[in-house]
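Lines hold sequence, tokenised fold; shown next:
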Amino acid sequence: MPKNRNTFSSLSAWRRRFLASAVHCGWRWVQEAGAVTAEHPGRLSFRRLGSGTRLAFPQGTVFGEAWIELGDHCIIGEQVTLTAGMMPGLDLGADPILTLGDGVVLGRGSHVIADTRVTIGSDTYCGPYVYITSTNHSYDDPHQPVGKQWPRMEPVTIGPGCWLGTGAVVLPGARLGRNVVVAAGAVVRGEVPDHSVVAGAPARVVRSWDPVRGWEPPLRTPAPVPIPEGVTPAQLLALAELEPDTP
């Protein structure tokens, strides 16, 4: 009897491994088939969908595509929301409402809500769950529910080369300069100068770069070791796959 039990246990484990492998293979196929690219846009008809740009599957809420421009080689993670206008089916005029420059990265679960003009500069990277919006609720009338009051809208501009950490929030009217670092969880409003680091809620400048004096306050971490010239991407990938020596 114990021998039979072991046999059944072995068969059950084999079935679980087979089913797990089949599920993972099937999900990878679904992700590949459901991804949105310029060659395979699916049901989405963007104003512009640049070469090499990819929206991972499953996508988040996407509407107002006719007023959304995505540059070349952008990476849009899973469950990312991209909207132009307050609701689907509106005529928003002749000009784009939401524009992403070349090489923009939006991490998983991020939201970009553009009821009025939102521009994200080239090579700006956003971590997971970043929230960028041009609309804010108003609460002027104390006798009406906040959700029923007409919202306020102000354009948002994020300069090129910025980095927005996980969970950062960019509020209506924000204007971020070039190469700005936004700390994780920061809430940004107003104007942020070029080459600044902001943190907190509301965010404030905690470090900035001066052409003469450099970073103020000075950086506390050593500079990263540069990649030697002539090293190919294939060599870097092979190096990353090497296992550390065991003692």
About this structure: The chain is about 15% helix and 25% strand. The chain has two domains: 1-34, 35-217.
